[in-house]
Amino acid sequence: MIGWVFRVVRYLNYDIFVGMNPWIDRYMQVLERVGSRYFIIAGIAFFVFYVLLRSRMAPKKIQRAFPALRDYRREILYSVGTILIFGFIPLLFIFNPTVRPYTTLYDTIAERGWWYYVGIFPVMFLMHDTYFYWTHRLMHHPRLFRYFHLVHHQSTNPSPWAAYAFHPLEAIVEVGIFVVFLFTIPIHTTHIVLFFLLSIIYNVYGHLGWELYPKGFNTSRIGRWINTSVSHNQHHKYFKGNYGLYFLFWDRWMNTLRVEYDEAFEKATTADAATGS
């Protein structure tokens, strides 16, 4: 849907845009990619869990209640604003011939080989998780919360549409990891495409409202370090603790993992599931 909107806007030939069309066209292409990624992945998750399997899956929902229609509208509206902001970053840093030479982008995979190409992905996820944890905690500071993070926390019972539901100021903070990558580690353009595709998938899962990992995963050797939908759902419900994105390293090291997390995970992965509102 959003892709068609962008195509229409792209081909509007107002005289005011003469001389700027290449930049506008490139911006619309980026918006189409980022917007399609959000609407397709969040849309599939929403259709499967909130429409197709709603009745069957309702007993296992982490919070038994479903968001209201106005909540979905708010989440989508703010997400569109986030997409508009996210679209500027590639325009400013990748497609800008003045800035790109100073970035760490490299042109061909052969320059560093396939071992580096594959091996840098875990590094990117660890970097993003660290960046997210500390900026997230900072935005929870009382002096910053209502300006940056309150919009996202209006979704106390989040849906997949909440994945990008940020205030514009928070959207700027969130997209900052893109800039960090571009000036710290050598990355190929396809690293960016694949990384942010995987990132939105996990982000949608975190806001899904159901737990997809099996019972006992949270206490397993690997699972105790992995962030889950239950963990992030608790963060939205209680506003405190569980600040991680992909992992629980920082939450465990900094003692910010909620004490009832394991109990909540156990409840969400049993046959009876949640009873909370």
Relevant terms:
two-stranded parallel ribbon; 277 residues; mainly alpha; 14 helices
Total number of domains: 1
Protein structure class? mainly alpha
Approximately what portion of the residues adopt beta-strand conformation?
Answer: under 5%
Number of helices: 14
Order of helices and strands: HHHHHEHHHHHEHHHH
| Main β-sheet, spatial strand arrangement | 1-2
C-alpha Rg (nearest Å): 20 Å
The outline comes out as globular
**Which sheet architecture does the biggest sheet show?**
2 strands, parallel
Low-confidence stretches: 11-18
Distance between the termini: 33 Å
Q: In terms of quaternary structure, what is this?
A: single chain
How would you describe the overall organization of this protein?
The protein is an all-alpha fold. The chain has one domain (60-268). Helix content is 58%, strand content 1%. It is built from 14 helices and 2 strands, in the order αααααβαααααβαααα. The protein has a two-stranded parallel ribbon. The radius of gyration is 20 Å and the shape is globular. Residues 11-18 have low confidence and may be disordered.
How do you describe this structure in short?
With 277 residues, this protein is mainly α. Helices cover 58% and strands 1% of the residues. A two-stranded parallel sheet has the order 1-2.
List the helices and strands and how they pair.
Elements: H1 2-10, H2 21-52, H3 54-57, H4 69-86, H5 88-93, E1 105-106, H6 113-139, H7 142-148, H8 150-153, H9 168-174, H10 176-182, E2 187-188, H11 189-206, H12 229-238, H13 249-253, H14 261-268
Parallel strand pairs: 1-2
Helix pairs in contact: 1-2, 2-11
